[in-house]
What does this fold into?
Amino acid sequence: MKEIRWHARAGQGAKTASQLYATALLHDGNGVQAFPEYGPERRGAPLRAYTRVDDKPIRRHDAITHPDVVVVLEPSLLNEVDVAEGLAPDGFVIINADTPPASLAGLDVRCVPATRLAGDSSFVNLVLVGALAAALDEPVEGVVEAAVDLLGAKASHDAIRSAVEEGYACLS
It folds into this structure.
């Protein structure tokens, strides 16, 4: 089982990213879970979202305390939250940054300049979902399809596709 913990601020799309990634892998026949955990329910408050993926049904229904992967959408959270807490020994962090932050020294950190790659689209979450798929050797097509299905009524299909593919290219 792969367990992924997402860190963001409310309103940045971590819940959507978690669900989108799970949906993409569900279409491939995997067992999946995706759910958020909110602190104070206000825009900008730190939140966690979780994704579990396995090749069989998942029976657990608890928070992920020992993730294989941590995805950080908002790097300013490093000043407030220990994003690497419980990270599996062979786990890694994907962070929206150009260079690895000093506070994550000694960890396997994979930087994706998601804010810059998303540009005016505000699809930082989609860029990082694409990067996650690449890091876990998942095909990009399923993630793009799930993203277009989920968000296609709200945004241009080309913009959605581009954001996911940009992130994928960063870590493939």
